[in-house]
C-alpha cells in the first residue's frame, strides 16, 4: 500500500471516531469565533432539536413507524421541569431525570396499544395525543399558566456554576446533544440496532429472525419519548419561559420534517435536518412568513426524489454506484 | 424433530391445508412438493408463526409451537427463506447475514446504547461468523454492498446464508433454486448437501424434480392442501396418485 492508501484506509476505518472528534472540536471552539448571543441562542435551539430528532429518527427510520406527536413529549418534559422546579421547588437535575422517567412510563402506556396500529392510524393516534396534551397545557391555567405561559424557570447549574448565559448554555446543550448522538450511534451499530433496521426493512423477515417486532417498536418509542422529554427540560431551563405554542402539532410536523430531510435512519442526517430546518427561517425572510408552505414543499421534493431522505438518499446513491462500479471492474 | 399433526389452515372458509400430518426427521432432508397452490408456502408460514393454523398441532421436539409468535419460534432454532425474497435491501450484505445471528446478539436496548466492552467483543465474533458464512456462499467480496443492488442469483444465496448462519435446529427453504440457472442450481445443491453432512435438518419446498429426487431422504407430496403421498423419492415417483396430480396439473397449465 502507498502512504495515500494507508491514509484513506485509516480514515475509512475510523470515520465515525474522526467525525465525532471533529464535531467535538467544533462545539468547543464555536463560542470563541461566534459571540453574538442571538446566534448562539439559535445554535442552542438547534442542539435541543437535534436531541429530539435523534430519537424520532430512530423511531421513524429504524423502527419504520410514524409519530406526529413528539412535540407533546417535548412539551411534557418542559412543563414537567417547570412545574417541578418552580411550583414544587425541586432541584432541576433530579427533576429533569424524574420527569424523563414519568414520560417514559406514559410513552409505554400509550405505545403498547397504539403501536399495534400502523401507518395512518398510528399517525392519527399520535396526533390526537399531541392535541390532548396541547389542550391541557393551554386550559389548565392554575398549573401551567395557560396561554400566557410559564415564567421564572430557574437555570440549570452544576454546583455554583449556573448555565445562565448563551455561552454556558451552549456547552451544556451541545454536550447533551453529543452524548445523545454517541448513544444513538452505539445503538445503531449494535445487534439491537440491526434488529430495528431489519424491522424497518421487512417485518415478516425480521420476526422470522427472532426480532420481537412489537416490543422493539415500543422500546424505541419510549427511548424517543425520553430524549424528547430531556430536550424539553433543557429548553425550559434555557429560555426560563415556556408557552403551549412551542409544543403544538405544527412543531411535531416540523420535527418529522427534520427527520425526513436528514434522512430516515441516519444519525448524522438528524444533525443536518435539525440544523437546516431550525435555521432556514432565519436565513431567508420569506421562509419566516411562509414557513409551513416552504417546509411542506421541501418535504414533497425530498420524498419525490430521495424518498429515504436527503442524507440517507445520497449515501444510498453513493453506495449503489460504488458497488456497481466495482462489479463492472470485476467483470472486465 | 418436527411433527405436524392434523394441521389445517383456512382462509375465510377456504381450506388451504387439510389435516396435514407428517414428520421431519432430524439430520435429513425432507422435500415437500406439490403443484402450484397446493399449500406448501402456507405450511411453512404456519410452522414459522407467520400464519396461525386453524386447527391441529405443530411440535418441535417436545414443544408445541403452533400458537407461538414468529420471533419465539425463531428463538427455538427454526430458520427459513422466503419464496419471494425478503432481504433487507438497504442493509449491507454483511448486515443481512448478521441479522441472521440476531438471537445471539443480545436484545437489551440499554446495553446497546452503552456499547459495553463485552458487547463489542461479541459483535466482533458474530462478524467473523457472518463473514465465514458469506465466504461459504461465495459472497465474501460483496460484503459491503447494499443487498438490494445484487443480482437475483446472489440474493437467493444471501437468503440461504442468512437462514443458515446461526446453525438452527431446523431450516425451512421455500424454493431455493427457483429462477436460478443450471450452474447456480448446482452450487445451491452442493450447499444443501453440505448442510446435511453437517447434520442440519432441512425441509425443502421445491418444484425442481431433478434436485428433489437427487437430494431428498424423503418426499411429502401435497395436493390441494392434502398429503397425497409420502416416502422415499423412488416410492413417491412410482405412486399413481402423484403422477395423476402432476399430470393433471400439467394438463391444466398446458
Ligand atoms: N394470505 C392468504 N389469504 C388467502 N388465501 C391465501 C393466502 N395465502 C395463500 N392463499 C391460498 O392458499 C392456497 C395455497 O397457497 P400457497 O402459496 O401455500 O401455495 P404453494 O403450494 O406455495 O404454491 P406455489 O408453488 O405457487 O408457491 C392458494 O390457493 C392461495 O391462493
Ligand atoms: Mg409457494
Count of β-strands of chain B: 10
The biggest chain-chain interface is:
A-B, 35 and 45 residues
Roughly what percent helix of chain A? over 70%
**Strand pairing plus helix content of chain B: what structural class?**
alpha/beta
Order of helices and strands of chain A: HHHHHHHEEHHHHHHHHH
Question: Might you state the CATH topology name of the largest domain in chain B?
Answer: Rossmann fold
Please count the helical segments of chain B: 10
> Uncertain segments of chain B of ≥5 residues (pLDDT<50)?
none
CATH class categorisation of the largest domain in chain B: Alpha Beta
Mean pLDDT of chain A: 82
Number of helices of chain A: 16
CATH architecture of the largest domain in chain B: 3-Layer(aba) Sandwich
Helix content of chain B: 40-55%
Share of residues in strands of chain A? under 5%
Brief summary of the model shown:
Chain A has 332 residues and is an all-alpha fold. Chain A contains 16 helices and 2 strands.
Amino acid at each position: 500500500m502507498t502512504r495515500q492508501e494507508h491514509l484513506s484506509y485509516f480514515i475509512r476505518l475510523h470515520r465515525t471516531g474522526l467525525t465525532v472528534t471533529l464535531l467535538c472540536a467544533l462545539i468547543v471552539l464555536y463560542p470563541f469565533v461566534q459571540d453574538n448571543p442571538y446566534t448562539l441562542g439559535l445554535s442552542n435551539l438547534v442542539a435541543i432539536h437535534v436531541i429530539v430528532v435523534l430519537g424520532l429518527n430512530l423511531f421513524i427510520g429504524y423502527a419504520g413507524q410514524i409519530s406526529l406527536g413528539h412535540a407533546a413529549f417535548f412539551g411534557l418534559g418542559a412543563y414537567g421541569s417547570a412545574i417541578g422546579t418552580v411550583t414544587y421547588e425541586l432541584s432541576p437535575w433530579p427533576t429533569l431525570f424524574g420527569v424523563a422517567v414519568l414520560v417514559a412510563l406514559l410513552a409505554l402506556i400509550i405505545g403498547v396499544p397504539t403501536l399495534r396500529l400502523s401507518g395512518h392510524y398510528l399517525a392519527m393516534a399520535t396526533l390526537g395525543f399531541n392535541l390532548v396534551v396541547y389542550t391541557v397545557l393551554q386550559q389548565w391555567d392554575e398549573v401551567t399558566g395557560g396561554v400566557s405561559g410559564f415564567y421564572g424557570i430557574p437555570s440549570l447549574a452544576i454546583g455554583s456554576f449556573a448555565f445562565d448565559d448563551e455561552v454556558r448554555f451552549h456547552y451544556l446543550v451541545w454536550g447533551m446533544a453529543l452524548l445523545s448522538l454517541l448513544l444513538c450511534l452505539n445503538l445503531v451499530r449494535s445487534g439491537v440496532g440491526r434488529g430495528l433496521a431489519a424491522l424497518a426493512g421487512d417485518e415478516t423477515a425480521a420476526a422470522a429472525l427472532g426480532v420481537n417486532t412489537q416490543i422493539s417498536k415500543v422500546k424505541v418509542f419510549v427511548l424517543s419519548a425520553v430524549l424528547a422529554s430531556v430536550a424539553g427540560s433543557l429548553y425550559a431551563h434555557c429560555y426560563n419561559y415556556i408557552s403551549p405554542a412551542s409544543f403544538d402539532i405544527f412543531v411535531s410536523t416540523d420535527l418529522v420534517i427534520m427527520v425526513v430531510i436528514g434522512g430516515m435512519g441516519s444519525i448524522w442526517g438528524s444533525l443536518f435536518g435539525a440544523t437546516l430546518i431550525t435555521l432556514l427561517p432565519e436565513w431567508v425572510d420569506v421562509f419566516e412568513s411562509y414557513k409551513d408552505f416552504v417546509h411542506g414543499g421541501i418535504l414533497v421534493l425530498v420524498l419525490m426524489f430521495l424518498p429515504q431522505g436527503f442524507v440517507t438518499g445520497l449515501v444510498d446513491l453513493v453506495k449503489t454506484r460504488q458497488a456497481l462500479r466495482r462489479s463492472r471492474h470485476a467483470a472486465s | 424433530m418436527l411433527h405436524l399433526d392434523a394441521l389445517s389452515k383456512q382462509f375465510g372458509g377456504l381450506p388451504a391445508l387439510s389435516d396435514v400430518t407428517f414428520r421431519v426427521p432430524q439430520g435429513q432432508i425432507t422435500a415437500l412438493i406439490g403443484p402450484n397452490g397446493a399449500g406448501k408456502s402456507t405450511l411453512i408460514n404456519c410452522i414459522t408463526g407467520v400464519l396461525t393454523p386453524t386447527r391441529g398441532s405443530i411440535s418441535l421436539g417436545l414443544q408445541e409451537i403452533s400458537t407461538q409468535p414468529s420471533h419465539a419460534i425463531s428463538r427455538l432454532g427454526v430458520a427459513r427463506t422466503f419464496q419471494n425474497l425478503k432481504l433487507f435491501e438497504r442493509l449491507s450484505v454483511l448486515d443481512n447475514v448478521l441479522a441472521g445471528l440476531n438471537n445471539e446478539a443480545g436484545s437489551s436496548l440499554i446495553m446497546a446504547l452503552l456499547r459495553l466492552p463485552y458487547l463489542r467483543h461479541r459483535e466482533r465474533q458474530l462478524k467473523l461468523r457472518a463473514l465465514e458464512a458469506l465466504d461459504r456462499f461465495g459472497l465474501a467480496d460483496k460484503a459491503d454492498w447494499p443487498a438490494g443492488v445484487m443480482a437475483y442469483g446472489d440474493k437467493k444465496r444471501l437468503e440461504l446464508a442468512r437462514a443458515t448462519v446461526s446453525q438452527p435446529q431446523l431450516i425451512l427453504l421455500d424454493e431455493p433454486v427457483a429462477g436460478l440457472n443450471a450452474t447456480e442450481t448446482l452450487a445451491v445443491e452442493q450447499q444443501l448437501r453440505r448442510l446435511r453432512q453437517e447434520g442440519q435438518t432441512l425441509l425443502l419446498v421445491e418444484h425442481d424434480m431433478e434436485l428433489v429426487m437427487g437430494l431428498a431422504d424423503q418426499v411429502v407430496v401435497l395436493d390441494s392442501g392434502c398429503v397425497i403421498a409420502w416416502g422415499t423419492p423412488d416410492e413417491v415417483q412410482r405412486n399413481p396418485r402423484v403422477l395423476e396430480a402432476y399430470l393433471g396439473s400439467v394438463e391444466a397449465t398446458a
